[in-house]
Write a structure and sequence with these properties.
By secondary structure, the protein is an alpha/beta fold. The chain contains 17 helices and 11 strands. Strand 2, helix 3 (45-50) and strand 3 (59-62) form a beta-alpha-beta unit. Helix 12 packs across helix 16.
Length: 419
């Protein structure tokens, strides 16, 4: 039995929306001319008074005043999905027959197969490329789930994820050893027996960034501290990683100009140490990906003169294109028609901060095509573009200010030995 048989023809049913206002707006804008949206249910009298969806010809009614018989309730709320399900079941509504997640609607309308991409940011990047593959979009409805959203309490999407994934036809999953990821196909027992599972290697390649460390036992969390965000005299880099070179030099109280000048030298890291670090990272990656369907080790080795990573979580166009094409090949679909320039633009517009590649690393790896490169920095106030020298100076000044704030607040670092 498939979901269409349980839910019925969604185009012929009256639809009632229930959930978070912004998500409801998005749903209405997308489907108002496709579905018969009868009303929006709410628990707040103020929303009934405002009748926020009146311009669409859709009334807002209190939950307790809503008389529901054959209508299909669409839940538009990722975070509170589980809570809303319990309320609906409490009044006798049945899952799928009486209510569904908005994530299933696209597949139901066109009776398409369902593809879930679940895991790291690489699959989010790949999912965006899928939007530009007409043959895939015609056959599949694609949903991306960040794995940490499934697990974390403040964005707990597990109830909705389980509600959706049991109808999945193709399940593309990141294999990884990254922080907060589970190293397994999450919810595998919930999938259909004939679901096609594709695993993609994504183990956080750091070969271009010897200054960045994963082990914060030895270094501080200055670059990630929540408390700095409350000091608006400077901008906090969003989702940055501790730069051990900058931190060590700042702990010695060296001058900002001297630190910047030192890190900008072509021989700051020796060519041999950079090469050894790159090879070690590649060896680690290749060992970990042995069981994956889509492997990246050989590709990275063959394209080592290109900067393939934006940071430890996000990749640049060559890798995203490679993974996308591999998935399409496995599914027997044509290659992407979108050009390289548009692919790069798509990644740039939807990515976080880049990590700068030190000049000594550029020289040692003979990296191509990055002359006069402007690195993207996302702060909690703005998006900036800087050269590596400007980026390094910005990070040094930021770290000094973070250290000053810690001193002012009288907070000592935990698990960090004074250097």
């Amino acid at each position: 039995m498939n979901i269409n048989e349980i839910c019925g023809n969604i185009k012929e049913r009256e639809i009632v929306l229930y959930g978070e206002q912004e998500e409801i707006y998005c749903f209405i804008e997308r489907y108002q001319y496709v579905l018969n949206i009868k009303a929006v249910m709410t628990e707040h009298k103020k929303e009934v008074k405002l009748q926020a969806y009146a311009d669409f010809g859709i009334k807002t009614i209190l939950v307790e005043n809503m008389i529901l018989n054959t209508e299909l309730i669409v839940i538009c709320d990722k975070v509170k999905f589980g809570t809303l399900v319990k309320r609906l079941e409490g009044v006798g509504k049945t899952e799928y027959e009486g209510f569904i997640s908005h994530e299933l609607v696209d597949a139901l309308i066109e009776k398409k197969s369902l593809m879930i991409c679940m895991g790291t940011q690489l699959l989010e990047q790949v999912s965006r490329f899928f939007d530009y593959c007409p043959e895939l979009k015609e056959k599949y409805s694609v949903i991306y789930y960040p794995e940490n959203d499934i697990w974390e309490r403040h964005t707990n999407r597990m109830p909705e994820y389980l509600h959706v994934c049991r109808w999945c036809d193709v399940y593309v999953h990141s294999s990884c050893e990254k922080e907060r990821f589970s190293l397994k196909v999450f919810g595998k027992n919930e999938l259909k027996s004939n679901c096609r599972i594709i695993t993609v290697a994504d183990y956080g390649f750091a070969g271009y960034f010897p200054q960045i460390i994963r082990d914060r036992e030895d270094y501080s969390d200055f670059f990630l501290r929540q408390r700095e965000r409350f000091d608006f005299s400077y901008e906090t880099i969003a989702f940055a990683r501790t730069d051990k070179e900058i931190e060590e030099l700042c702990r010695k109280n060296e001058d900002v100009n001297k630190i910047t000048e030192k890190l900008m030298k072509n021989n700051y890291f020796s060519a041999q140490s950079v090469s050894d670090y790159f090879v070690d990272e590649l060896r680690r990656f290749s060992q970990l990906e042995k069981m994956d369907d889509i492997k990246l080790g050989d590709f990275i080795g063959q394209h080592k003169e290109e900067i393939l990573c934006r940071n430890l979580n996000e990749w640049n166009e060559p890798v995203v294109s490679f993974v996308t094409e591999k998935v399409l090949q496995i599914l027997g679909l044509p290659k992407l028609s979108i050009g390289i320039a548009d692919r790069k633009k798509l990644i740039e517009e939807n990515s976080g901060s880049e990590i700068p590649v030190y000049p000594s690393v550029k020289a040692a790896l003979n990296l191509r095509g990055i002359e006069n490169k402007q690195y993207r920095i996302v702060t909690y106030q703005s998006v900036k573009y800087m050269s590596e020298e400007e980026y390094i100076r910005f990070a040094v000044e930021y770290l000094y200010k973070a250290m000053e704030l810690i001193q002012i607040m009288g907070i000592e670092e935990e698990n960090v030995e004074s250097k």
